[in-house]
Amino acid sequence: MNVRQLEAFQATIETGSVSRAAQRLNVSQPAVSKLLRAFSESCGFPLFVRSGGRLVPTQEARMLAGEVDRMFSGTERVARLAKALKNREWGEVSVAAPAALATRYLAHALSPFLASQPDLHFTLKSHHSPRIAELVAAQQIDIGLTVVPFDHPQVDAELIMRFDMVCVLPAGHPLARNNAVSFEDLRSEPFISLARDDCSLMTIDSAFRAHGVQKRTTIEVPLSETICGFVANGVGVSVVPPFVGLDYGESQLVRRPLLPATPMQVWMLTPNTRPPSLAAQKLADMIRQAVDAFDQREAGGGDFHQ
User: What is the dihedral of CA 200, 204, 209, 213, to 10 degrees?
Assistant: First the structure.
């Protein structure tokens, strides 16, 4: 027996006649009859009998029909899965990013895509950049976003964004009248800071020291989004990436360029010891598009591959 015989058998069972089965399969009626005879011979018993001018399946044929249906259902599932894989609609993708990106921005940016892919299992983790690099090298995640490059023979690093930190101020703050804010302007201001082991804080602290300003930290929090919450409530000022606190309007929180500019970068890390799934490739493209709105690299900037 072969698949064409099984198709002819299933079509005849479902339509109740050889002629309608032939129409469904887009073949001639004699071709279906020949397939049914061959299938019956393979089985060793009759599949259909004539009764009142109608083709009636035997009891044995009815028992076979259930198994054939299950077989073709499995084939259809395989076909649907293959199509879903081709269209990046199925699979598992894990991403790790610093909290500034993972807390809100990636959720906003990736939700439309993920909502259209109900069979794609997506995991988002938040870690500091060194830990993210370790997870990528250990092949425990598919995509890692860090604010530092990572030199490892089993990891590819791609620079996907460069941005300048911004100063966030409570609405109505005197400095909000300025077009930009300098480090000197922040010398006496109550400053809301990230935790001391955060890579972003290390960059900010280095910039303050480079400009001879000692910031006056009054509150220390774990997340940039939490910083924006305190700033919006008038507790102090801070310096954050431009993609955090976007839910706050100008009536609550004011953003101003910080001068001289304090740049930071975001790198996409991926394991290079195995090819990425089609779903991971699609999600990586979506992340590139998401960060593009804040990318301030000069024209002609390139990628960093290791």
Answer: -150
Angle, CA of 138, 139 and 145, to the nearest 5°: 95
Which contiguous run of DSSP H or E holds residue 291? helix 278-292
Nearest alpha-carbon partner for 10 in 72, 75, 77, 56: 72
Which one, of 134, 143, 136, 147, lies nearest residue 98 by Cα? Answer: 147
Residue whose token pair is 């019956």:
40
Separation CA 127–CA 110 (nearest Å): 19
Among candidate residues 79, 56, 301, 97, the one with its CA nearest the CA of residue 199: 97
pTM exceeding 0.90: no
Rounded average pLDDT over 57-69: 83
What is the number of alpha carbons within 13 Å of residue 166 lying toward its C-beta?
22
Residue 158 has pLDDT above 90, yes or no: yes
Sign, CA dihedral 220-226-227-233, equals negative
Q: Any idea how long the chain is?
A: 306
